[in-house]
């Protein structure tokens, strides 16, 4: 599996030392040893911005060894922290990061990115405080970059029953996405256990973007292409955005603050300042994804 990670086209590869490894100490150590060997042998093939490691929760007997491993290798730029329930949890992890960073004398100076995994009712209650966290250790304590929603753990903690509709998680997921945006963080949605890339799966992935998520977790390489295609604007959305920006530029030149945009089925849609911002976001994301932006002439 470690070798296969080199060929995946996902934005980030997460090497998991937590739930995918049996809880026995020998199993945890064996997983660390395999990962360390891989990192040592394949270091030239790994892009640091694409490498993350999911640690065992702080407070477990495995955490210290996990983070020591992570900080020995500059290829690892992101730590995924499970079961973050409060700012205090992040403070504890940050102190470990600071301590081990100094003891391992890392030469790089860019702070580590921290992804906080939301997995409990307590985490949801403290979500605003978690999202506003900054390290008291400064540069070497890490910086919070994203919230990640772990649906299965959350349901286990709260007693919520998972259904195919996901309606029971709509409030929770919306709150995670909105809170992340309020604090300038990435919002990463839950995994889907259906690894077959079909129309149904594509629909559920589109739902993530509609809720405001910036990405989602994949548990199988077969999901990656579908995720990529559903987290970028469609051709229709890009065309509409380009038309809005073009027509509003003309309107502003004529001292007008709003326009009517012709709809496909007839009629007009009123366009004003907030919709300009939305259109700008669509074009920005499309450009980042390397998509074609139509040249509007009329």
What attributes does this structure have?
298 residues; two-stranded antiparallel ribbon; metal-binding; elongated; 11 helices; Pyrv/PenolPyrv_kinase-like_dom; magnesium; Citrate_lyase_beta/mcl1/mcl2; 2 domains; HpcH/HpaI aldolase/citrate lyase domain-containing protein; seven-stranded parallel sheet; TIM Barrel
How widely separated are the two ends?
Answer: 52 Å
> How would you classify the helix and strand content by structural class?
alpha/beta
Biggest β-sheet strands, sense, barrel: 7 strands, parallel
Q: Give the strand content.
A: 5-15%
Average pLDDT confidence is 87
Overall number of domains: 2
Rg from Cα: 22 Å
GO biological process, one term: oxaloacetate metabolic process
Protein name: HpcH/HpaI aldolase/citrate lyase domain-containing protein
Cofactor: Mg(2+)
GO molecular function: catalytic activity; magnesium ion binding
């Amino acid at each position: 599996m470690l070798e296969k990670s080199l060929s995946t086209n996902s934005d980030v590869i997460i090497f998991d030392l937590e739930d995918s490894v049996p809880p026995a100490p020998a199993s945890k150590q064996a997983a660390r040893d395999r990962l360390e060997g891989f990192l040592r042998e394949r270091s030239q093939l790994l892009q640091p911005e694409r490498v993350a490691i999911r640690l065992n929760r702080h407070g477990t007997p495995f955490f210290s060894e996990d983070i020591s491993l992570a900080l020995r290798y500059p290829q690892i730029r992101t730590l995924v922290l499970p079961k973050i329930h409060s700012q205090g949890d992040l403070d504890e992890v940050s102190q470990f990061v600071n301590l081990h960073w100094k003891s391992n004398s890392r030469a790089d100076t860019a702070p580590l990115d921290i992804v906080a995994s939301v997995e409990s009712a307590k985490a949801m209650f403290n979500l605003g405080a978690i999202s506003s966290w900054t390290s008291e250790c400064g540069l070497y304590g890490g910086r919070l970059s994203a919230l990640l929603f772990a649906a299965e753990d959350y349901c286990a903690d709260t007693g919520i029953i998972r259904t195919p509709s996901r309606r029971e998680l709509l409030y929770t997921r919306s709150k995670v996405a909105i809170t992340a945006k309020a604090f300038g963080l990435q919002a990463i949605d839950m995994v889907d256990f259906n690894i077959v890339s079909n129309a149904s799966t594509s629909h559920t992935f589109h739902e993530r973007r509609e809720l405001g998520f910036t990405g989602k977790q994949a548990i199988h390489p077969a999901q990656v292409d579908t995720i990529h295609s559903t987290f970028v604007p469609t051709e229709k959305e890009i065309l509409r955005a380009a038309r809005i920006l073009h027509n509003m530029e003309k309107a502003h030149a004529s001292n007008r603050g709003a326009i009517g945009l012709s709809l496909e089925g007839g009629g007009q849609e009123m366009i004003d300042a907030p919709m300009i911002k939305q259109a700008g976001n669509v074009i920005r994301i499309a450009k980042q994804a390397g998509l074609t932006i139509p040249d509007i002439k009329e």
